[in-house]
Design a protein that fits this description.
mainly beta, 30 strands, 5% helix, globular, carbohydrate binding, aldose 1-epimerase activity
Length: 348
């Protein structure tokens, strides 16, 4: 196993580095210490052709100017927080309203825009990049000094594991995820609407007009939100369900997982033969089919367009701080937040 560190760019006089992990099968994962951004994942198709299966850029400037969180770690709190504020221990904390009147993915300068400390480790069967960042008390409005550690580990079984650890000296809220946009066709040859998703989930979170969970968890049975037996993503794009229309014709919804760490999420592209299985210890996954990606920029030579990628954001439910019936996002002072998600690639 090999881990290589190289200079990628400069940011305010500091070096931004790119790290590349390579296993014995030839799979490669590249990532930055800026935002812990995963820039490339090279995996073979059924014919052995190595291609990139995530959306990303080749320059820091493109990430700063155009990126809708491509490959980044989102936090302190991934997803939306209604009204850009929350109450904890009788005190109201006001956050940036960077998404209409709401807070999104940690605020104006969340984890995705921070330069993290990083180190690499190499072993006989795996290689890792370990990122560390201290989010100071009051940063983006959140309480407590939060020490975060994120580790990307690639092994020889073509599995990428992401682990998160966090401790705070005050009670705070934490909900972190990786926001990679996957496209298993390879090198963005096709959109993702013909990808087939299988999801062990019997309920999804209903969204209001601002895309905030209403608190209602809706049974998927009999709807285009039922992925238990497998379903192509285009079903959400063509659906007349008001929930699909509300998010721009597609999916941008949290699904409550019925199982954990048991092949609960599986994405397949029949033409390339690539399969991605995602396993997590988190209670939910946000499925986003890049319904609003269209723009006047290019993604490695491909014009930005809707449905070029699909996000599988393993996390707690968005806006859980306002919904006591949801799994809690509160991290008590001195306690540890821990989470692990594995992305397993194969061919059929």
């Amino acid at each position: 196993m090999k881990a290589v560190r190289e200079k990628f760019a400069e940011l305010d006089g500091r070096t931004v580095s790119i790290f590349t992990l390579v296993n014995r099968q030839g799979m490669e994962v590249s990532c930055l210490d800026y935002g812990c951004i995963i820039t490339k994942i090279l995996v073979p198709d059924r014919d052995g052709r190595m291609e990139n299966v995530v959306l990303g850029f080749d320059t820091l400037e493109e990430y700063q100017q155009h990126s809708p969180y491509f490959g980044a770690v989102c936090g302190r709190h991934a997803g939306r927080i209604a009204g850009g504020e929350f109450e904890l221990n009788g005190k109201t904390y006001k956050l940036a309203k960077n998404n209409g009147g709401n807070n999104l993915h940690g605020g104006v300068e969340g984890f995705d825009k921070k330069l993290w400390e990083a180190e690499v480790t190499e072993g006989p069967d795996s290689a890792s990049v370990i990122f560390r960042y201290v989010s100071k008390d009051g940063e983006e409005g959140y309480p407590g000094n939060l020490e975060m550690k994120v580790t990307y580990t690639l092994n020889d079984r073509n599995e990428l594991e992401i682990s998160y650890e966090g401790t705070s000296d005050e009670d705070t809220i934490v909900n972190v995820t990786n926001h990679s946009y996957f496209n298993l066709s390879g090198d963005l040859k096709r959109e993702i609407l013909d990808h087939e998703l299988t999801l062990k989930s019997d309920r999804f979170a209903e969204l209001d007009e601002a895309l905030i969970p209403t608190g209602k968890l809706v049974p998927v049975n009999g709807t285009v939100f039922d992925f238990t037996e497998g379903r192509k993503l285009k079903d959400g794009n063509t659906s007349d369900n008001p929930q699909n229309i509300r998010v721009g014709s597609g999916y941008d919804h949290p699904f409550l997982l019925a199982e954990n760490e048991n092949e609960e999420i599986s994405l397949y592209d029949a033409e390339s033969g690539r399969r991605l299985v995602v396993e997590t210890d988190q209670p939910a996954v946000v499925l986003y089919t890049s319904n609003t990606l269209e723009g006047s920029f290019s993604i490695r030579g491909v014009t930005a367009a809707n449905h070029l990628g699909v996000c599988l954001e393993t996390q707690g439910l968005p806006d859980a701080v306002h919904h006591p019936e949801f799994p809690s996002c509160i991290l008590k002072a001195g306690e540890s937040f821990r989470s692990v998600t594995a992305f397993k690639f194969s061919q059929e």
